[in-house]
Design goal:
Helices cover 5% and strands 38% of the residues. It is mainly beta. The structure holds zinc ion. The site of zinc ion has 8 residues, from loops.
Length: 165
Protein backbone atom coordinates (compact mmCIF):
# COMPACT_ATOMS: atom_id res chain seq x y z
CA UNK A 1 0.00 0.00 0.00
CA UNK A 2 1.52 3.29 -1.05
CA UNK A 3 1.27 6.01 1.56
CA UNK A 4 0.99 9.20 -0.40
CA UNK A 5 3.69 11.71 0.43
CA UNK A 6 5.20 9.77 3.32
CA UNK A 7 8.00 7.67 1.78
CA UNK A 8 9.81 7.06 5.12
CA UNK A 9 7.00 4.75 6.20
CA UNK A 10 7.95 2.12 3.61
CA UNK A 11 4.38 0.97 3.00
CA UNK A 12 3.51 0.53 6.68
CA UNK A 13 0.13 1.82 7.81
CA UNK A 14 0.71 5.06 9.76
CA UNK A 15 -2.02 4.73 12.39
CA UNK A 16 -0.82 7.71 14.44
CA UNK A 17 -0.26 9.83 11.33
CA UNK A 18 -3.50 8.97 9.58
CA UNK A 19 -5.12 12.32 8.87
CA UNK A 20 -8.01 10.95 6.81
CA UNK A 21 -11.44 10.08 8.21
CA UNK A 22 -12.38 6.52 9.15
CA UNK A 23 -14.91 6.32 6.35
CA UNK A 24 -16.06 2.71 6.54
CA UNK A 25 -19.55 1.76 7.77
CA UNK A 26 -17.91 0.04 10.73
CA UNK A 27 -16.60 3.34 12.11
CA UNK A 28 -18.58 6.22 10.68
CA UNK A 29 -22.30 6.94 10.75
CA UNK A 30 -21.78 9.41 7.89
CA UNK A 31 -20.24 6.75 5.63
CA UNK A 32 -22.84 7.58 2.94
CA UNK A 33 -21.11 10.95 2.43
CA UNK A 34 -17.93 9.13 1.35
CA UNK A 35 -19.79 6.59 -0.77
CA UNK A 36 -21.40 9.51 -2.61
CA UNK A 37 -17.98 11.15 -3.03
CA UNK A 38 -16.73 7.98 -4.72
CA UNK A 39 -19.53 8.52 -7.25
CA UNK A 40 -18.42 12.14 -7.78
CA UNK A 41 -21.24 13.63 -5.71
CA UNK A 42 -20.84 16.24 -2.96
CA UNK A 43 -23.69 15.63 -0.56
CA UNK A 44 -24.90 16.56 2.87
CA UNK A 45 -27.79 15.75 5.17
CA UNK A 46 -31.32 17.12 5.01
CA UNK A 47 -33.79 16.63 7.86
CA UNK A 48 -36.94 14.77 6.82
CA UNK A 49 -38.87 16.29 9.73
CA UNK A 50 -38.13 20.01 9.39
CA UNK A 51 -36.27 20.27 6.08
CA UNK A 52 -33.09 21.80 7.56
CA UNK A 53 -29.98 21.22 5.44
CA UNK A 54 -26.75 21.10 7.44
CA UNK A 55 -23.18 21.04 6.20
CA UNK A 56 -21.05 19.14 7.04
CA UNK A 57 -23.43 16.14 7.21
CA UNK A 58 -24.89 15.26 10.61
CA UNK A 59 -26.41 12.27 12.31
CA UNK A 60 -28.88 14.44 14.28
CA UNK A 61 -30.67 17.54 12.97
CA UNK A 62 -29.21 20.61 14.76
CA UNK A 63 -32.61 22.36 14.53
CA UNK A 64 -35.13 19.77 15.73
CA UNK A 65 -32.93 16.87 16.96
CA UNK A 66 -34.56 14.39 14.60
CA UNK A 67 -32.41 11.46 13.52
CA UNK A 68 -34.52 10.99 10.38
CA UNK A 69 -32.13 12.48 7.82
CA UNK A 70 -31.53 11.93 4.13
CA UNK A 71 -28.67 12.85 1.80
CA UNK A 72 -29.08 15.66 -0.68
CA UNK A 73 -26.74 16.84 -3.43
CA UNK A 74 -24.76 20.07 -3.25
CA UNK A 75 -23.37 21.86 -6.30
CA UNK A 76 -19.97 20.61 -7.46
CA UNK A 77 -18.93 24.02 -8.75
CA UNK A 78 -18.41 27.24 -6.83
CA UNK A 79 -16.52 30.50 -6.65
CA UNK A 80 -13.54 31.36 -4.46
CA UNK A 81 -14.50 33.92 -1.81
CA UNK A 82 -11.15 34.05 0.00
CA UNK A 83 -8.11 31.82 0.27
CA UNK A 84 -4.71 31.29 1.88
CA UNK A 85 -1.70 29.86 0.08
CA UNK A 86 1.16 28.13 1.91
CA UNK A 87 4.24 27.60 -0.23
CA UNK A 88 7.04 26.89 2.31
CA UNK A 89 6.84 24.67 5.39
CA UNK A 90 3.91 22.65 4.11
CA UNK A 91 2.97 19.86 6.57
CA UNK A 92 4.12 16.28 5.96
CA UNK A 93 1.86 14.53 3.48
CA UNK A 94 0.91 17.65 1.53
CA UNK A 95 2.41 19.16 -1.60
CA UNK A 96 3.27 22.82 -2.06
CA UNK A 97 1.35 25.02 -2.54
CA UNK A 98 -1.13 24.11 0.18
CA UNK A 99 -4.18 26.23 -0.58
CA UNK A 100 -7.25 26.55 1.64
CA UNK A 101 -10.25 28.44 0.39
CA UNK A 102 -13.78 29.35 1.33
CA UNK A 103 -15.94 28.45 -1.64
CA UNK A 104 -19.36 29.92 -2.40
CA UNK A 105 -21.54 27.11 -3.76
CA UNK A 106 -24.26 29.58 -4.63
CA UNK A 107 -27.07 27.87 -2.73
CA UNK A 108 -28.35 28.30 0.81
CA UNK A 109 -28.04 27.09 3.46
CA UNK A 110 -24.83 25.15 2.82
CA UNK A 111 -23.51 28.09 0.88
CA UNK A 112 -19.95 28.37 2.16
CA UNK A 113 -17.55 25.45 2.25
CA UNK A 114 -14.00 25.52 3.61
CA UNK A 115 -11.87 23.28 1.40
CA UNK A 116 -8.44 22.71 -0.08
CA UNK A 117 -7.79 23.80 -3.65
CA UNK A 118 -5.54 21.37 -5.54
CA UNK A 119 -4.12 21.12 -9.07
CA UNK A 120 -3.42 24.84 -8.89
CA UNK A 121 0.08 26.34 -9.39
CA UNK A 122 1.29 28.78 -6.72
CA UNK A 123 0.31 32.37 -7.31
CA UNK A 124 -2.41 31.70 -9.87
CA UNK A 125 -5.62 31.51 -7.81
CA UNK A 126 -7.72 34.64 -7.51
CA UNK A 127 -10.86 35.66 -5.68
CA UNK A 128 -13.90 34.95 -7.81
CA UNK A 129 -12.27 32.09 -9.71
CA UNK A 130 -14.56 29.20 -10.56
CA UNK A 131 -13.58 25.88 -8.98
CA UNK A 132 -15.00 22.39 -9.21
CA UNK A 133 -15.13 19.30 -7.03
CA UNK A 134 -12.08 17.03 -7.24
CA UNK A 135 -12.29 13.59 -5.60
CA UNK A 136 -9.01 11.77 -5.03
CA UNK A 137 -7.92 8.50 -3.40
CA UNK A 138 -6.26 8.51 0.03
CA UNK A 139 -4.49 5.57 1.70
CA UNK A 140 -6.81 2.61 2.30
CA UNK A 141 -7.67 1.74 5.90
CA UNK A 142 -6.87 -1.76 7.16
CA UNK A 143 -9.85 -3.20 9.06
CA UNK A 144 -9.34 -6.26 11.25
CA UNK A 145 -12.25 -8.65 10.56
CA UNK A 146 -11.10 -11.29 13.04
CA UNK A 147 -11.13 -14.76 11.51
CA UNK A 148 -11.91 -13.31 8.09
CA UNK A 149 -8.54 -11.57 8.20
CA UNK A 150 -7.73 -7.95 7.42
CA UNK A 151 -9.58 -6.16 4.66
CA UNK A 152 -8.46 -2.91 3.06
CA UNK A 153 -11.18 -0.28 3.03
CA UNK A 154 -10.72 2.00 0.02
CA UNK A 155 -11.00 5.67 0.87
CA UNK A 156 -11.39 8.96 -0.98
CA UNK A 157 -11.45 12.59 0.04
CA UNK A 158 -12.30 15.78 -1.76
CA UNK A 159 -10.96 19.19 -2.59
CA UNK A 160 -11.76 21.70 -5.29
CA UNK A 161 -9.67 22.54 -8.35
CA UNK A 162 -9.72 25.43 -10.80
CA UNK A 163 -12.10 25.03 -13.73
CA UNK A 164 -10.01 25.01 -16.90
CA UNK A 165 -10.70 28.12 -18.91
ZN1 LIG B 1 -34.91 18.91 11.67
Amino acid sequence: MAVLGIPILEDLYPSTMDMWPLEAKEFNRNWTFYENLKAGRLTTTKCKSCGHVAYPPRVICPECYSEDLEYTDLPTKGKVIIFSEEVKGVPLGFDSPLIHAVIDLGVDPARRVLTRVINCPAGTLQRGDEVQLAVFPVPALPIDKGRQGTIMSERVFFAFEPVKK
